[in-house]
Amino acid sequence: MRGVEVYPSEDVHRVRLNPKDQRIMETLQRWGRIPVRKLAERVGLSETAARYRLKKLLDTGTMVVTAQIEPAFVGRPVQAFIRIDFGYDAEVESVANIKAVDGIDFAALQRPSGQQGPTICAHATYPDHENLLRVRKELRLLPQVTNVEIGLGLKIHSIRPRYWGDAGVSDADNVWVRHPVPRQLEDIDLTILRELARDGRTSFTQLAEHTGLSTAATRQRYVKLVEDGALRVQALPNPYRLGITGQGELAIRMRGDTAALIQRVASYPSTRFIVEVAGPYDLLIVQVCRERADLERFIQLEIASDPKVADWTLTLYDESVLAYNPPLPD
C-alpha cells in the first residue's frame, strides 16, 4: 500500500475550526474509533450533528483517522531517521520523488533558501541493517544529493499534538512510548491492519467481511493487536489546513544524559515526537507549533539555553512530501 498524501503541500485553503470541531478532533486523537454516539456525548452535540461535523472534517482533508502501525510487528524492526541535503539548484519536484524510495513512510521538505538547497527529513523502516545500507547507497547516488545522515531509532516517544492546550490531558493519555514485544502476525491480523490503515473508522462489521471471521471474533483480534502494541488508531490532523506554520525537526547532540531534556520537552503541547537515536546526534525532537515565533521561543527556552546541549540543527517542515505510509508487507 503506497501512502496517501493526506497533507497538501502548498496553496492549501486554511480552515478556522470552532470549539466543537476542535473537541471532535482532540477526542479522535485519543480514541480514533470512538462510536459517534459517545463522541456526540463528549462534545455536547446531537448524534446527527456530530456525524455531520466528523464527515466534513474527513471530507475536507482537515484530518484523517488511520492505524499507526508498530513496524516491528510487520517484519521491519529497524527504524531510521534520515536527513537528505540537495544542491541549491535542485528542483523541488525531483526532490519530492524521494517518497518512492523503499521503506520511507514519512517525508517533509525544507524549501531552498539563498545558497542552501532543499532538505528532506524522512522516517523509514527496514527488515534489517543490510536493507538500510542498501538504501543509504541508493540515496547517495541520487542526482544532486550532497549529504545523507542517518540516525537509528533506539526509543521513540510518540506524543499526541495538543494544538489547543492541555485541558484534561494526562501523561498516560498523551505519551505512547513504543517498546512492544513483537509477535508473529497471521494473515487475518495483517488484513485488519491494512483495512484500518486505509480507514481507521472502518466498522467491525465491515472488517469481518474482509477477515472472514464473525464480527465478535474480528473485534477480539483488533483488541489483541492494540493491547500488544501493534497499532494505535487515531486522528492525524492536517497542520497545513489548520494554519500551523511552526513545524520542524531538531537534531540534538548532548554532553550528558538526555532524560531531563526529554521530560521537559514532553510537557510541551507542541511536541509530536521525541526519538533517542544512535548516529550523528542523540535526540530528534519534532515540534508542531502554531506560529514560527512559538517554535523559535521553544528553541531558546529549552534547547539553546541548556548547558548539556552541545549542538543542534533545525530543519523546518515547509511542505509535506509524504504524510504517512503505513509499514505493511505487500
Euclidean distance between termini CA atoms: 7 Å
User: What is the H-and-E element order?
Assistant: HHHEEHEEHEHEHHHEEHEEHEE
Amount of beta strand: 25-35%
Number of strands: 12
From the spread of the alpha carbons, the general shape counts as globular
User: With helices defined by DSSP (H or I, 4 residues minimum), what is the helix count?
Assistant: 11
Q: Overall pLDDT, averaged?
A: 87
Structural class by helix and strand composition: alpha+beta
Query: Which radius of gyration do the C-alpha atoms yield?
Result: 20 Å
Unreliable residue runs: 1-11, 165-176
Could you describe the 3D structure shown?
The protein is globular. The chain contains eleven helices and twelve strands. The chain is of the alpha+beta class and 330 residues long. The N and C termini lie close together (7 Å).
Keyphrases for this structure?
alpha+beta, 11 helices, disordered N terminus, ten-stranded antiparallel β-sheet, 330 residues
Strand and helix layout:
Elements: H1 19-30, H2 36-43, H3 47-59, E1 63-69, E2 78-86, H4 92-96, E3 104-110, E4 119-126, H5 129-140, E5 145-159, H6 171-174, E6 175-178, H7 187-198, H8 204-211, H9 215-228, E7 231-237, E8 246-254, H10 259-266, E9 271-278, E10 283-289, H11 292-304, E11 309-316, E12 319-322
Antiparallel strand pairs: 1-7, 2-4, 2-5, 3-4, 3-12, 5-6, 5-9, 8-10, 8-11, 9-10
Helix pairs in contact: 1-2, 2-3, 8-9
